[in-house]
């Protein structure tokens, strides 16, 4: 049996288990299992199917032996902000409510009545998204206080899966920062904010950094799988893992392109200045206490919903080809308008927006897709301008990572619009960042610099130069 480590990366639209080992200084990947992730309706709430996702994780682990692989460690990363509250008997107190659920509508303003927006930003450095954990918890406090009274443990989604694997409870740092409840300077839970909001501190676990060996499998799982593994904390916020594996970082702005587009730079200190607040940038925690100075852009969620609205009769590649065929269609929308966060029908919402703004209304799948892609690039350009204004410098390169880097039309459009060199890849950047964190934890890789060198020599990165427009 070949030794390997196992990365579990679950984004908002898909999950995958990828086995990996080092061979002649290169990282080799072997996709073991891939599955759909989606938001479902349950008890009139938008929810994740965490029980199904854990079964998918176990299914993937069991596939390893059939492939002659013996995983020595496993690391789990997922989307951010969402959590589970366990009671004193370790039972979940609520559904696995998703961040797109409207339960946080109006909660930001309720919190600002207690803690000024500017102070919240100065202390946490985290962007204001209506679905941040802080507003989810405050919604529970306002509408179902008995739930918070009964709560004994707060676990974010990857923490919860780690608990199911090991029986150990911990909050991992990079994901904890996405809650907007961690102080950007002390890097600990912000007792003052929790106290002012009346959220009891004792439900939060000790914060552990990426590369922590949390433990090994519970006995029943060792017997079920037939082997034991170390359970290691990668950057359990998926974007935190993705940024670790950006091959081109100097002079570079990254775009982690999946359900969301996370656009930013790696930094060594939090930037909580007024301009960063006004432009709604975040300082999410990274590995080795680095910072991910970035902002959320609505992302490929929009094309995922368009695809769903067309009953999945077009693949993503086909939607790109259809968009290529209507280059004359120029209408765009503000992708970051909250109306696109969870519309009933994305196509109709885009059409309504174009009508309201007196633009041509997209009617064909190609026109709708082109409108989405063109609109995303407009938002990318705006964010890039804001980053360069804040850093008072130009960035020469853009590195697109994640599933979206497979969209070569979009990559070229980004290059043409921004007039910057675009590098595309690696596709599985998140899983790769997860893997190298495990290998650093066990000493197979020295540090992040060696990790990035290995990554650069292991994966193809395609280059897109701005087209030369002849007069
Ligand atoms: N062949 C392709 N052509 C164009 N876009 C693609 C292709 N494959 C995947 N994508 C894009 O990648 C996105 C998924 O990226 P991924 O990083 O897996 O998302 P997440 O981690 O959020 O689930 C899809 O929504 C789709 O827009
Ligand atoms: C809700 C958060 O902003 C979101 O999780 C984002 O931080 C993120 O990591 C998205 O990752 P995807 O792979 O789901 O695009
Ligand atoms: Mg992802």
From TrEMBL:
Domain Carbohydrate kinase FGGY C-terminal stretches: 254-441
Regions annotated as coiled coil: none
Keyword Nucleotide-binding attributed: yes
Catalytic activity: L-rhamnulose + ATP = L-rhamnulose 1-phosphate + ADP + H(+)
Keyword GTP-binding belongs to the record: no
Catalytic residue list: 238 (proton acceptor)
Pathway: Carbohydrate degradation; L-rhamnose degradation; glycerone phosphate from L-rhamnose: step 2/3
Cysteine pairs bridged by disulfides in the record: 354-371
InterPro entries with a match to the protein in the record: ATPase_NBD, Carb_kinase_FGGY, FGGY_C, FGGY_N, Rhamnulokinase
UniProt-recorded name of the protein: Rhamnulokinase
Family recorded in the similarity comment: Belongs to the rhamnulokinase family. Belongs to the FGGY kinase family.
Record-annotated Carbohydrate kinase FGGY N-terminal domain positions: 5-244
PANTHER family, per database record: L-RHAMNULOKINASE, SUGAR KINASE
Lineage, uppermost ranks: Bacteria, Bacillati, Bacillota, Bacilli, Bacillales
Residues holding substrate: 80, 237-239, 296
Cofactor(s) the protein requires to work: Mg(2+)
Binding-site residues, ATP: 12-16, 259, 304, 403
Keywords: ATP-binding, Disulfide bond, Kinase, Magnesium, Nucleotide-binding, Rhamnose metabolism, Transferase
Catalytic activity, EC: 2.7.1.5
Task performed by this protein: Involved in the catabolism of L-rhamnose (6-deoxy-L-mannose). Catalyzes the transfer of the gamma-phosphate group from ATP to the 1-hydroxyl group of L-rhamnulose to yield L-rhamnulose 1-phosphate.
């Amino acid at each position: 049996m070949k030794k390997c480590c196992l990365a579990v990366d679950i984004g908002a639209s898909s999950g995958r288990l990828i086995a990996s080992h080092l061979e002649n200084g290169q990282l080799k990947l072997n996709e073991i299992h891939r599955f759909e992730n989606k938001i479902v309706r349950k008890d009139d709430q938008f929810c994740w199917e965490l029980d199904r996702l854990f079964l998918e994780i176990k299914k993937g682990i069991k596939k390893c032996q059939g492939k002659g692989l013996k995983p020595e460690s496993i690391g789990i990363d997922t989307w951010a902000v969402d959590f589970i509250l366990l009671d004193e008997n370790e039972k979940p107190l609520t559904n696995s409510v998703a961040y797109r659920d409207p339960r946080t509508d109006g909660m930001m303003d309720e919190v600002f009545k207690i803690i000024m927006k500017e102070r919240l930003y100065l202390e946490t450095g985290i962007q204001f998204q209506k679905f941040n954990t802080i507003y989810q918890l405050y919604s529970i406090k306002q509408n179902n206080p008995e739930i918070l009274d009964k709560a004994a443990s707060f676990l974010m989604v990857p923490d919860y899966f780690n608990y199911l694997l090991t029986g150990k409870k911990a909050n991992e740092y990079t994901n904890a920062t996405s809650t907007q409840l961690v102080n950007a300077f002390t890097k600990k839970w912000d007792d003052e904010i929790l106290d002012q909001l009346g959220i009891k501190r004792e439900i939060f676990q000790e914060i552990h950094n990426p590369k922590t060996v949390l433990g090994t499998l519970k006995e029943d799982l060792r017997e079920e799988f037939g082997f034991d593994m170390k359970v290691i904390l990668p950057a359990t916020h998926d974007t935190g893992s993705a940024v670790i594996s950006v091959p081109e970082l100097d002079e570079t702005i990254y775009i982690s392109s999946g359900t969301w587009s996370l656009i930013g730079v790696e930094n060594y200190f939090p930037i909580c200045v007024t301009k960063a607040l006004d432009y709604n940038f975040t300082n999410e925690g990274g590995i080795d206490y680095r910072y991910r100075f970035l902002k959320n852009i609505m992302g490929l969620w929009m094309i995922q919903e368009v695809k769903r609205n067309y009953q999945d009769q077009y693949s993503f590649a086909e939607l790109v080809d259809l968009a290529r065929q209507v280059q004359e269609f120029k209408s765009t929308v503000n992708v970051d308008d909250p109306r696109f966060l969870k519309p009933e029908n994305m196509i109709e919402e885009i059409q309504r927006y174009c009508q309201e703004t007196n633009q041509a209304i997209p009617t064909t799948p190609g026109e709708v897709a082109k409108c989405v892609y063109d609109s995303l690039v407009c938002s990318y350009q705006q964010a890039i301008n804001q980053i360069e204004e804040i850093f008072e410098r130009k960035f020469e390169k853009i590195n697109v990572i994640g599933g979206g880097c497979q969209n070569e039309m979009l990559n070229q459009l980004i290059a043409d619009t921004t007039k910057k060199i675009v590098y595309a890849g690696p596709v599985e950047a998140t899983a790769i960042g997860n893997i190298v964190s495990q290998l650093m934890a066990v000493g197979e890789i020295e540090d992040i610099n060696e990790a990035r060198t290995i990554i650069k020599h292991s994966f193809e990165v395609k280059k897109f130069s701005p087209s030369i427009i002849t007069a």
